[in-house]
Design a protein that fits this description.
The chain has 7 helices and 9 strands; from the N terminus they run H-H-H-E-H-E-E-H-H-E-E-E-H-E-E-E. By secondary structure, it is of the alpha+beta class.
Length: about 350
């Protein structure tokens, strides 16, 4: 009975705790008022920050524009240069410069030097300067007279007034010869008047076969302060100079040398030494540069005079000169001489 009453009462009247529960459930389904206020506040703060950031950006841009270099802004009163957009079609590609082939210029042909007397001794002809069509004109003989240039060079040195040889007994020769480089060079030499033409012929034969002579200067070019002709002869030999006349006595003797008469020549003397025989049977020369040629005298060595050498053949066989290489003591491989009446 009591249970049925309770059910009936339950169907007619709600309990107080049931209504309270419904209120609580209703309130929990809606956001609280504090949350709504927070949302509104965040929204307003966002609007305010956006406004402030916008103002700062504009200010910064104006500051950058004002601080830009003056050269970057157009000058006052000048119109701005319109920008130009360069398209690929507008780019001009430079064409390669055509190669220019250099036309070789012809070098001027040297004028032949046909007057050997106008050239200094030792002059080396450049290519084209020697006239091979007029070779004979390069072999010249001339007299020596007091007061001329040659006399002034030799007077008081290789020549002085004496009772044996007069100036008229001598001739000054100028001849071309091939030097050790294979170039044509001007040579000078003084010889006996009676042998002048024969010497010219010999030098022409040597020239035609391109026989090499290192140099050919008057021995006066090597004159020493001592005034001793032997000292000049030594200096000339050390320079490998070919020479002939020098008024002097024979080496280590008292009689006049064949050189004093202009009847002897010393040819390439360094390679063809003058040497004396010692007590031990060996040869000795004072010229250090010549010592290698004392015993090693073969036709394979350049400029060494042997029986097969063209100089020996021309001087001795063809022209009857005597060769010092045939002497015993001393031996003089450089020396050719010929007696005259």
């Amino acid at each position: 009975m009591q249970n049925r009453d309770r059910l009936r009462y339950a169907g007619q009247k709600k309990s107080p705790w049931e209504d309270e529960l419904k209120k609580k459930n209703h309130k929990s389904s809606l956001p609280p008022a504090g949350i709504w206020a927070g949302v509104v506040l965040v929204f307003l703060i966002g609007i305010l920050l956006g406004f402030l950031l916008g103002r700062r950006t504009g200010t910064d841009r104006r500051a950058e524009t004002e601080s830009a270099p003056a050269s970057a802004s157009p000058t006052e009163g000048a119109s701005e240069i319109p920008s130009v957009t360069v398209t690929p079609e507008a780019v001009v590609t430079a064409s390669p410069t055509p190669e220019v082939t250099a036309v070789p210029t012809e070098e001027p042909i040297p004028t032949p030097l046909t007057d050997i007397t106008a050239l200094p001794a030792g002059y080396v002809f450049a290519d084209g300067e020697f006239d091979f069509g007029a070779v004979e004109g390069y072999f010249v003989s001339r007299e020596i007279t007091p007061g001329d240039g040659i006399f002034e060079r030799i007077n008081g040195k290789s020549y002085y007034e004496n009772d044996n040889v007069a100036l008229s007994d001598l001739r000054y020769l100028m001849v071309p010869h091939y030097n050790f480089d294979g170039k044509i060079q001007v040579g000078e030499i003084i010889v006996n008047t009676r042998l002048a033409e024969e010497f010219l012929q010999i030098f022409r034969e040597l020239f035609d076969i391109q026989y090499q002579i290192r140099s050919m200067y008057l021995i006066d070019n090597y004159w020493q302060p001592s005034g001793d002709p032997d000292d000049a002869d030594t200096a000339s030999i050390d320079a490998d100079n070919t020479s002939a006349f020098s008024y002097r006595v024979i080496t280590y003797g008292t009689t006049l040398s064949r050189h004093a008469y202009g009847c002897a020549i010393d040819l390439n003397p360094l390679e063809n030494p003058y040497a004396t025989l010692g007590e031990d049977g060996s040869y000795y020369t004072i010229h250090e540069g010549s010592r290698q040629y004392l015993y090693n005298r073969t036709t394979e060595m350049p400029h060494v005079i042997t029986y097969e050498d063209p100089a020996y053949q021309i001087f001795t066989v063809e022209h009857g000169f005597t060769w010092g290489g045939d002497w015993g003591n001393p031996v003089d491989y450089q020396h050719f001489e010929k007696m005259v009446q």
